[in-house]
Every structure is written in structure tokens, then in C-alpha cells.
């Protein structure tokens, strides 16, 4: 019982045992097949003993007398005796196959018997035994390693952001212990992330009250030039804080799939893009015929387009272009600017929360959440966003949102 308990808790021992049993079975079968083949070969290759042969005539006199040896050929071809007579002559006696003597038809395909004779019969036997062992061992190894595949899929889903995933904990070996540890760690991480999101949402909501009181206090300040300049500076900082609070609150709500962020409806991308371009002063370039409607939450899609346009305006040194097109069953929204562009090594990281390009902290505006919100909104609608260089090869950046058409 103790030995069985050790094997049940050690996966490598069970795999080793399965391989040993398979090899042992193959060895025994090969030894048996080898023995049978050697016996058949020895029987077929050994010279048969000589036999006394006597042929008598009708009157009973001996016509031929001598010693004959059997020619060990193919039994299907009959039996041949070579007889050395007493008169010094050599004779040959041929006997029909047993099937002929018993009025049975000869075998139709003599090649079957040929392939079954040694050494070919031994090779066939060895191949069949090998296939049987492989087929027999595979389900055992598959059953042992299937839990590792389940654990691998669970870890992959967890790494992709599904914090609610858990893996089965069946068994008492290393894999079961690893599954239990993974589930425990996943539960702790999910709890911490939930608390973190709740803290961000509550803190963002509570920050609105002091900001509102500061705005009200500014209304009571004097109108002299000094107060006016201070007032304008405070208003600018309050606007930045208000934008930061609003983006943090929206980001925390987008991270929680169970939070309702709006109703899904058919959204006209052309009208939405035209309004946002007019607000920013960007040029709208239509490259698609007909309407561009997508299923989504209008305020979120508007926020994504606005963030890209404001980001382009912040860094661009020329005109900003928003183009709309179709690519298969996807709507493509492309925002191009004439700014310094984004290094290729940074084009994925700029969509991370609170990440800014080196040196961007000295520039005015931007808290490092705008592009992250664009990515979250695109994923929420089953689409994607990425950054690339301008299509015309000029300096600048091109941000592309792809959304499934309605």
C-alpha cells in the first residue's frame, strides 16, 4: 500500500513505470517471435535423414532399390525425393502437395506463404508487436499528461487577463499540487485586483467633491490682474486633475467586465468621426463607399476617437487626418499626424496604463491613460488598435482602430 501511495504521488514514477512495462512487453514478444523464427529456420534448413526406397514391379520383383533424401522446398509445390539406386543411377520421385491428394484446390496465392516464412514472418511479427505496444502505452501517457495540458491552458487564459479561470485539482501528485497552488495564487491575485479597481473607482469618485469645492472657491476670488492670472492657472490645473480623475474612473470601469458602461446600439462611425474632426479641426478623409455602422457603445467609441485626435493635436506640427475605410468585415479608423512619431520598439508599450515616451513628462498635458483607454475600448468592442508609421512615409505617427462592422 505504501508503494502504491508513493506511485500515486509521483508523476515521473508512473511515466517511468509505463515505459518500463511497454519495453518489457515488447522484449518478451520479440524474444518469443525470435524463438519461433529460429525453430522454423532450423527445421527448414536441416537436412532430412535418408530413407530406404524400394520400388517393386507387378510380379513382386524389386525394380529399384536405394536411399532417398527429401528436398525441403515449398510445401505448396509438393515433395521431391532424390534417390540413389543400387545400380548407380540417380532418380527423382515427386509427390503432389497434400491438398492435391485430399482433393483440395491448391492455395491461390503462394506469396502469402512466402511472406510468412522466416525471416519475413519474424519481421511482420516484430512490426505488429511494436505497433501493439505503441498503441497500448499511448493512452496511459496521454492520461497522465492531459492534466498538464489543462494546467497549461488555464495559465495561458490567466495570463491573457481572465482572472476568474481555475484548473481542476484531481489527484494527489505533483500536478495536482501545482494546480492547487495555482488556484490559490489566482484567487489571491483576483482579490487584490478587485480591491485595487474598487479603490481606484472610489478614490476617483471621492476626488470629484474637493475639485468642485475648489471651483466654487475660485468664483469668490477678486478680479484684479494678479488674481486673474492665479485663477487661470488654478483652473488649468483643476481641468487636468478632472481629466485624470475621469480617465482613471473610466479605466477602472472598463477593466470590470461585469460593470455596465452603457447600452449597445448601432453607431454611425461617419457621423461620429465628422463631429470629432470638427471639434478638433482635423481633416476627414472618406475611403469607403456607403455607411460604416458598428455595434457598440456610442460614448465609448466617441471617447476613443477623441483621445486619438487630442493625442495627435498635442504632438503634431501640422494637419491631422482621420480616414475611414473598410477591410473585409472590419471598419478601419486611421488617425495620422505630422509629429515626431513613435519609435518602433515603443509602439506596443504606449498602450500601457500611465506609460509615456521618454521625455514626454516635460510636455504639457497627457497623463498616460488616453491611449490605454483607446485599447480597452477597442477590445471591449471586439476590435484592436495599433500604432505604425505614416503610409506616405513622412514623419509622424498613424494610429489605427479596427472594429467589426454591424
Q: How many angstroms does the end-to-end distance come to?
A: 63 Å
Radius of gyration: 44 Å
CATH architecture of the domain at 265-404: 2-Layer Sandwich
Strand content: 15-25%
The mean pLDDT is: 77
**Series of secondary-structure elements, N-terminal to C-terminal:** HHEEEEHHHHHEHEEHEEHEE
Question: Helicity level, as a percent range?
Answer: 40-55%
Name given to the CATH homologous superfamily of the domain at 265-404 = Histidine kinase-like ATPase, C-terminal domain
Low-confidence runs of at least 5 consecutive residues: 108-112
Write down the CATH topology of the domain at 265-404: Heat Shock Protein 90
The class by helix and strand makeup works out as alpha+beta
User: Mind summarizing the main beta sheet?
Assistant: 5 strands, mixed
Total beta strands: 11
Strand arrangement within the widest β-sheet reads 6-8-9-11-10
Number of helices: 10
Please tell me what the overall shape is: elongated
By CATH reckoning, the class of the domain at 265-404 would read: Alpha Beta
